[in-house]
């Protein structure tokens, strides 16, 4: 049960002063809290025996008020320290969790659902925060405070009466242990179900236009209802056990009350204790309700925290499959790119997606990559981005094996526009400046012009300050592509990767953008994958890919002379364009 505290030892060591102060003050406050019941018993005995005077009553009242103020100040201090620590660990773990996710490669996200990752960042972190705050409180109150009350009852009243009243309480400990084991198992299942619910909601919201287009709203609601019912059922299973804690504690404490009153009254009749001591004893019994309740809550909170910590550690212990090399470099420049007999297969795939690729690309080349869908064009880019591990000494930049280059350095060299452009739910300005936040207005206007998006932006009522909505929902496909291109260009990368980034624009706009990029990026390396041959026609090198292999390579003129796939596809597209122009006239 307490293994979660062991797993959080690193945090308690970092903030040991805070927790030592909080626990010390909490224990001191517990010692002070057992004094008032004893004073009440003394007051009752003095009144009952006719010894109470005005001076004594005034002193009792002053002592009560003084104790109240001291306990209030001490309680305020330990609560601030203890629950402040709970807030700190939530912030620390959330920061560490986010940093860890940012280091993960696509393999990790293929194995973990987004909804489950979100559940860990919310519910699980909250459960751990509760453990380091309320959990520590219940631990002290269920042990130290309980012992203090029992010793006070034993020494100041009667050990015989204390032992008799305490007899039902071991039964409580046994039941709490049973409840804790069951709630741990059920809470993990409930958290997993919540992760599935998050994933379903995320997919429904992201794909709402597809759902509506296929008139699947009813089916989507039914599926959501089924998952919601499953989450509800699993949380009800947790609640059923959770609901047993308080009644069990109250029933057993009630038995203690019955024993205390009955047996205590007999002690009074025998003059073994005074009436005031019996009243003090029953007040102490009432004070035992919270430590016993805390004991039950301790089991509950610790088991939840332990389950959440286990789930979170599954993520923290996952090591990215792409690591910096021992001889990480940061001062070199990408003067050339070379692939030597490179083959690659995805972690979960059984066959190679890239096969024996061997090419050399000097700095400043414009490289076009074409081929059928699924031929390996995007996978080729993923090797340059080091999204997946590859065999050593297969991919070189500036004659240096890519695994020796620091990941940060490599990513700083590259500007990337993926097939599925992602825009943040911010303004157009913020989306473009994401590539280089310190860029000035001149640079901003230049890249917008090169990406042929300026005219479109001027038609918006708020211009460049227009909010694009989630994932750019308010923009057309072509507008999103051009904003993404502008975002990559403003970074002025040494290597630019455009992965079918012109598919949603017309041929005239495509030609303009390609010409602008060639002029803008003279002396820097650019890769363009496309389905339209016109996008790569003027490239210094064109690679034709088929089944993961480079089947043809050369300039446009050289490939046309080879009479292969490229020549056939280019001729076919030219004929289609001519036919379209004739029809348009």
Automatic annotation (TrEMBL):
The keyword Transmembrane applies. It is a multi-pass membrane protein. Keywords: ATP-binding, Cell membrane, Membrane, Nucleotide-binding, Transmembrane, Transmembrane helix, Transport. Residues 20-304 form the ABC transmembrane type-1 domain. The chain crosses the membrane at residues 20-40, 60-79, 127-151, 157-176, 249-269, 281-301. Residues 337-572 form the ABC transporter domain. GO terms for cellular component: plasma membrane. SMART domains: AAA (SM00382). It is found in: Cell membrane. Coiled coil: none annotated. Its main location: membrane. The keyword Transmembrane applies. This is Multidrug ABC transporter permease/ATP-binding protein. It comes from Salipaludibacillus neizhouensis.
